[in-house]
Amino acid sequence: MIELQIFDNLLRLPLFQGISKFDLSNIVSHTKFDFNTIAADEVIINEGDPCIQLYFILSGKIELMHTSDDHSYHVVETTEMPVVIQPEHIFGLRQHYTCGCKARTETKLVAINKKEILQLLNEYVIFRLNLLNMLSTRVQNLNQRPWHKAPDTLEKRVTNFFVNHCQRPAGEKIFTIKMNQLALEVGDSRLEVSRALNNLQDRKLLTLHRGKIYIPALEKLLM
């Protein structure tokens, strides 16, 4: 029964999709999986933690918080399963998480340590290809951004700022940023930025609070 539950959970994760039942059975038998249930508001990862394992979200909602280098602003993104938290940081020059993560609702997750990940990459071509495809897609999306047409209005520049500071250009976002700082980031006056934000608020695309900007669905700003 427990093995069947592990089977079902793994099949929902992008890195295990396409793996045969025979291989999946071997993986379940020989790989150490750390399954956990995280209570709402409990921290999963702190920014700067070493990336010594990958976290796979099986159910629930999580919040990812990214902070600017000078700590002048930050953004909180809400995302749902299935998701792997920053898999690109398990290898490379900076093997630390660059965002914090906490459970927004009760969340079920599984963690797999780096030693087990390396073993899976070594033994299963599909797992290796799935990870390569995931990382390649992220790199390609980042490489494409500088070649997009430059925004020709202030509203589009503000939207561009939001998109460039999120992992996914969709879903709920909360930016904590002062108006002066946002004006500096988009290269315009505080007054004009305030007008642009109020125009977006009038169209129900975002809601302004003191020092915060709530965006219920970022993808609607891109329409």
How are the SSEs ordered, and which strands pair?
Blueprint: H1 2-11, H2 21-30, E1 34-38, E2 43-45, E3 53-59, E4 61-67, E5 74-80, E6 83-84, E7 100-103, E8 107-113, H3 114-123, H4 125-144, H5 154-164, E9 173-176, H6 179-186, H7 190-202, E10 207-209, E11 212-215, H8 218-221
Give a written overview of the molecule.
With 223 residues, the chain is of the alpha+beta class. It has 2 domains: 1-60 and 82-145, Jelly Rolls (Sandwich); 149-221, Winged helix-like DNA-binding domain superfamily/Winged helix DNA-binding domain (Arc Repressor Mutant, subunit A, Orthogonal Bundle). It has 8 helices and 11 strands. The strands form 2 sheets. The chain has a 7-stranded antiparallel sheet, covered by helices on one side. Strands 1-8-3-6 form a 4-stranded antiparallel sheet. A hairpin with a 6-residue loop joins strand 4 (61-67) and strand 5. The longest helix is centred in the middle third of the chain and has 20 residues, at 125-144. It is elongated. The mean pLDDT is 93.
Short key terms for the protein model shown above:
Arc Repressor Mutant, subunit A; 2 domains; alpha+beta; Jelly Rolls; single chain; 11 strands; 223 residues
